[in-house]
Amino acid sequence: MGVSTTINGISVLVCDTAEAASEATAKLIANQLNANPRCVLGLATGGTPLMTYQSLIAMNQSGQCSFQNATTFNLDEYVGLAADHPQSYRSFMNDNLFSKIDVPIEQTYVPDGLADNIAEHCSQYEAMIDRHGGIDLQLLGIGHNGHIAFNEPGSDSQTKTRLVDLAGNTIEQNARFFSSADEVPRQAITMGIATILKAKQIVLLAMGSGKVDAVNAMLLGEVSADVPASFLREHPAVTVVLDRDAAAGLGIDTTRKMPTEQQTT
Ligand code: PGA
Q1: Staple 204 to which of 33, 96, 140, 199, CB 3.0 to 4.6 Å?
Q2: Which atom of ligand 1 sits closest to the CA of residue 174?
Q3: What is the rounded CA–CA span in Å between residue 94 and residue 85?
Q4: What is the pTM of this model?
Q5: Domain 3-243 classification at class level
Q6: Which among 142, 164, 242 is the best mutation to test ligand 1's pocket, defined by most ligand atoms within 8 Å of the CB?
Q7: Domain boundaries, the chain
Q8: Which of the residues 23, 60, 74, 76 is marked catalytic?
């Protein structure tokens, strides 16, 4: 249940809790799978999608959706971590989703953080997405600094899959997954903004008061490389799903009873 509205061309759904926002996001993904079982999903890592993945696992295990014929492409991977490193994004996806659903693992793609020739690997990754017909639904989180995937501030809208340096505040944020900030890799392979904007549908999930500034900048600020998520306003089919805490700066009254057309159950 939540309140839906449109801000600068983006559909915004505000749910009462993080659990409800995650559930709503999982339902959008399940709907995509049910509408087109052979769909191509773009997937994300981090704290944000965890509850969404738990909902999808439950739906998959109870027969409400199947990943058997789906293909997945992840947004990014740390450079220098082997696939089986516990903090690699490949491990994250295997542990938190792929090993618990019916997707054949060979239909799941995550950039290779140990690729010998990173530039070549990036262009192959981009080409592989195209060869599969492009991404039907891309799931995104947003960084405190407004990044999407590892497209840090300064990334322009033409960027493709490439090697990037992580911003200092991203390293600090992600240190919670490592024993110390020193262990966080300094570089990553990431889909670019242009890669993400090629997806047919995009769902960005943000939860918690820590994301208020980034959400405000994305939806209400200038469209600019300073806030890479703001480029989503150039895409025709984006849904931003928020909990009340993340939506707190948008001036949406989530307590008042909204007109029927603005209510979503
Ligand atoms: P988080 O990261 O889900 O761990 O908050 C989101 C992001 O950096 O895109």
Answers
A1: 140
A2: 4
A3: 11
A4: 0.95
A5: alpha beta
A6: 142
A7: 3-243
A8: 76
* Neighbour-count burial for 188-226, b at 16+ CB within 10 Å, e otherwise: bbbbbbbbbbbbbbbbbbbbeeebbebbbbbbebeeebe
Catalytic residue, candidates 77, 112, 152, 243? 152
Question: How is residue 73 written in tokens?
Answer: 């492409």
